[in-house]
From TrEMBL:
InterPro entries: PPR_At4g14850-like_plant (IPR046960), PPR_rpt (IPR002885), TPR-like_helical_dom_sf (IPR011990). The keyword Repeat applies. It holds the Pfam family PPR. This is Chlororespiratory reduction 21. NCBIfam families: PPR (TIGR00756). It comes from the Eukaryota. PPR repeats lie at residues 219-253, 320-354, 421-455, 456-490, 491-525, 595-629, 630-665. GO terms for molecular function: RNA binding. The keyword Repeat applies. GO terms for biological process: plant organ development; RNA modification. SUPFAM superfamilies: TPR-like.
Length: 734
């Protein structure tokens, strides 16, 4: 113990106290270097530098997370001897300092050497373990505290709750809640907020709300915790409602509050709600930093308001790669491919490097546009900048090559990737499935199992789809059975894939059977499943089954406003012989719900029943409300005209599709027109149309001309047409 310093303290007590207060003030204000200068001055004046001085400077380093300066103080403490280094106050301060700077190794080492472990050192060590992901160790620390009869306080419990949430340890979390109630910590807003957050992460929203409602004085942290829980569990409307409740209680929102509301609005496509959240941010003067700016950008991109997203982007302070990626992804989602590529060029001008997300987005652009050249350029960039080992990018590259029709290159990327995960295996499997390589898909399926990569439900769904696409119905059914027996539960896509494949392979009865099994398993069919089932009923001409499915839709109030289901119902009733019910389904829809597929189904139904007048009236109505027809609609109309023998109406529709709608007639349209003209005896007009059309005539077209010539005894014309038949389809010339 340096007696000289003790003597100096007795001679200059006021000076030492004055220095302490000045050092303390400077440390709290973040002026650590100035505080250190005063310590040097004290040393020069032979004033005693007590442990409390170093403690204050260490606390200042904690505020600034200044690890470098803190280590210098630590070195100085050790240099001054055990009077300082073994001081309980300094020892605790050092543990707290290193823990707050997230240096787990040193903080744990110092903590293990503590002679006396108090609540402050325990709080620091539990906190650092929780923050950097050592959640189990954090909970172990909590238990050890209780065993040594040191009661965890309101600084320890929030970190314990966080660890429980991460580990999803519900029972342990409830035990912590019990401890909180017993220790009377439940009135502390930070403890209660952490409990609400913990319950929210586990999806126990009722428990979270109960804790939240019992907080005597809720601050913005508590409101944010509840809001995060709602958004994470898909209860977006409740999260948005909380913002209104906050206003009523006079709580000012933070950037986190607004960001959560924007996420909730984006999830439900709530444009007005999102705009109101943006207005709240402006009214409360919240700075457009990365947190808020990124949330606004994400919202406007997701709801398709790309111009607003651009304005937010331009006004943001300190844009990073994440910010750029969001806007680029927004452009891609809206189909603005050139804008996305231009933004990537601007990134390079701003000296920002592409990351995995940027490169993945660019490859998705290449896939969407079938731009193989762009895809290869992106892949070359990945190789040049050492991204070739990224599994996520490898999967995207496989998808890109598959979309561009280059399965061979997709396989090369797969083979070149050293560490393959299940997503990559599934990506190549999807590539084989989409390209119709069912044999390769099956070989890959067995190979992945030999490589000890267990297939998941996505893998088996792809294999079933591949088999069904190749007409291997029995093998697909066997794969479905194996999936159930191996403990992998079929999901909605599994059931829908099987039903669709069965219908496509002419096994409509079995498709209906699969629907029944699906319902028995507890799975709820979606709009696609229902539409496929109705298609099966139409193929079977089973009005009874179709009506039963319609009844299921009504009883469960599901898919009642789905255009896909309504279209399938109209088609099913028409093909099952009940045009009146088809009309009732069509007529029950609101004006705003009418879309082309629904109109097309009803026009096709009228054509099927020879009701040309009704079909044409509906077509004119479709034109009046500004819905553009498609090839299928025109085909149905021309077919109806052909069946009715109405040449004039057919010519008007055929000419109108080009002049009014800018459509290019397909071979089917030409064939119907030729058949109609030929059957009406206007064989010269029909032949002229054949010569003018940009397609090679098939046997059906030429046969209709021959039949017409034969009826009219036009021998020379028959010989001319016969030559065309020999040229275009010689195997059908006899």
């Amino acid at each position: 113990k340096p007696s000289k310093h003790h003597d100096d303290q007795s001679r200059n007590p006021l000076s030492t106290t004055s220095y302490f207060h000045r050092v303390s003030s400077l440390s709290k204000n973040g002026e650590i270097n100035e505080a250190l200068r005063l310590v040097t001055e004290m040393d020069f004046r032979n004033l005693r530098i007590g442990p409390e001085i170093f403690g204050e400077i260490l606390q200042g380093c904690v505020y600034d997370r200044d690890l470098s300066t803190g280590k210098q103080i630590h070195a100085r403490v050790l240099k001054n001897g055990e009077f300082y280094s073994r001081n309980e106050y300094i020892e605790t301060k050092l543990v707290v300092f290193y823990a707050k700077c997230d240096d787990l190794e040193i903080s744990e080492s110092l903590f293990s050497r503590l002679r006396i472990r108090n609540v402050f050192s325990w709080a620091a060590i539990v906190g650092v373990r929780s923050r950097i992901g050592f959640s189990e160790d954090a909970l172990t620390g909590f238990v050890e505290m209780l065993e040594t009869e040191i009661s965890p306080d309101n600084f320890v419990v929030p970190n314990v709750c966080k660890a429980c949430g991460v580990l999803r340890w519900s029972r342990f979390g409830r035990s912590v809640h019990g401890f909180v109630m017993k220790s009377r910590l439940h009135d502390c807003v930070f403890v209660a907020s952490s409990l609400a957050d913990m319950y929210g992460k586990r999806g126990f929203l009722d428990d979270a709300r109960k804790v939240f409602d019992e907080i005597p004085e809720r601050n913005v942290v508590a409101w944010n915790a509840m809001m995060v829980g709602y958004v994470q569990n898909g209860m977006n409307e409740e999260a948005i409602r909380l913002l209104s409740d906050m206003k009523e209680e006079g709580i000012e929102p933070t950037r986190v509050t607004v960001s959560m509301c924007l996420s909730a609005s984006a999830n439900i496509g709530g444009i007005e709600e999102g705009k109101q959240s943006h207005a709240v941010a402006i009214v409360n003067g919240l700075e457009m930093d990365n947190i808020l700016g990124t949330s606004l950008l994400n919202f406007y991109c997701k709801v398709g308001l790309i111009e607003y997203a651009e304005m937010v982007f331009d006004r943001m302070i300190g844009k990073d790669v994440v910010t750029w990626n969001l806007l680029i992804s927004g452009y891609v989602q809206q189909g603005l491919v050139e804008n996305a590529i231009d933004m990537c060029r601007l990134m390079r001008v701003e000296n920002l490097k592409f990351d995995c997300v940027t490169l993945s987005t660019l490859m998705s652009v290449a896939a969407r546009t079938r731009d193989l050249k762009l895809g290869k350029e992106v892949l070359c960039y990945c190789i040049r900048h050492s991204f070739e080992s990224d599994i996520g990018l490898a999967s995207t590259a496989v998808d890109m090559y598959a979309e561009c029709g280059s399965v061979v290159d997709a396989k090369k990327v797969f083979d070149a990737t050293v560490q393959k995960d299940l997503i990559l295996w599934n990506a190549l499997l999807a590539a084989y499935t989409e390209s119709g390589h069912s044999g390769e898909a099956l070989r890959l399926f067995y190979e992945m199992q030999l490589q000890s990569v267990p297939p998941n439900v996505i893998t088996r769904n792809l294999i079933m789809r591949s088999l069904l696409g190749n007409g291997q119905v029995s093998e697909a059914k066997e794969m479905f059975s194996q999936m159930q027996s191996s403990g992998i539960f079929p999901n909605l896509i599994s059931w829908t894939t099987m039903m669709n494949g069965l219908v496509q392979n002419g096994c409509s009865e079995e498709a209906i059977l699969f629907l029944r099994k699906m319902l028995e398993s507890g799975a709820r069919p979606n709009t696609v499943s229902i539409a496929i089932a109705l298609s099966a009923c139409a193929n079977l001409a089973s009005l009874h089954l179709g009506t039963s499915i319609h009844g299921y839709i009504i009883r469960n109030q599901q898919h009642s406003s789905s255009v896909l289901v309504d279209t399938s119902l109209v088609d099913m009733y028409a093909k099952c012989g009940d045009i009146n019910k088809a009309e009732r389904v069509f007529g029950s829809k609101l004006y705003s719900e009418f879309e082309l597929p629904l109109y097309g189904a009803m026009i096709s139904a009228y054509a099927l029943y020879g009701k040309l007048k009704e079909a044409v009236t509906l077509y004119r109505n479709l034109e009046e409300i500004g819905i553009e027809p498609d090839d299928k609609t025109i085909t149905s109309l021309l077919s109806a005209c052909k069946n009715a023998g109405d040449t004039k109406q057919a010519i008007e529709i055929f000419a109108g599709m080009v002049s009014k709608h800018g459509m290019k007639p397909c071979l089917e349209h030409y064939s119907l027109m030729v058949e109609l003209l030929a059957s009406a005896g206007e064989v010269e007009k029909a032949l002229r149309l054949v010569e003018e059309m940009p397609y090679k005539p098939d046997a059906r077209v030429i046969q209709s001309l021959l039949d017409s010539c034969n009826k009219q005894h036009k021998t020379e014309l028959m010989e001319y047409i016969s030559k065309h038949l020999v040229v275009f389809e010689p195997e059908k010339s006899t």
